[in-house]
Amino acid sequence: MEFFEPADIVIYIQGRGMVLKEKSFLAFDIISKKIVAYGDEAGHMVGHQAENIHIISPLRTGVIADYVATVQLFRHLLIKAWGKKLLLKVPMAICVPKGLTEVEKKAVEDVMYQIGAKEIFIADIPVERLLKELPAAKNWQKIKIFIGITKDEPKRYITEQYLNMLNYAKQEGISIEEVKDLLKDSKELNL
After folding, report:
1. For residues 94 and 106, what is the distance between their CA atoms, to the nearest angstrom?
2. Are 147 and 94 a contacting pair, CB within 8 Å?
């Protein structure tokens, strides 16, 4: 199984504060084709799961890697955070990591509409900062749910990306020494 470091999902509800913080894991039973665990519960299964259980992270460093699984994950986590079976159609603010492309932001927006959001506001700042600096604009005042998609473990993210890069290099016939030389060259170019 190829493992990717999940994103961290934080959910704040207006008037209640932070109500949920979990990893973006899903545990999927390949025999029954059903999701058997979400978030931290699925994360605790890593390394201890049965052969028929695959654990995935549909959000990798804040980017949607599996659209359908991301919809299922957010639907479950929002119902858990909201405390009701049917999520009301409410305005939501989604704080995504810096550097996401417009296409990646649109995918996040589409996921939120798919699970029942009435309106979506996307910001590329940490959710905690957004809550402190909440604009006085009328449209921000009506937001009921604030979601942060973050990476709390940047060293693990860097390691994951480095390993992905090395695997890609190997597939392309590029040696580790050549990769190191490329990294040195990019450092000298201030990249």
Report:
1. 11
2. yes
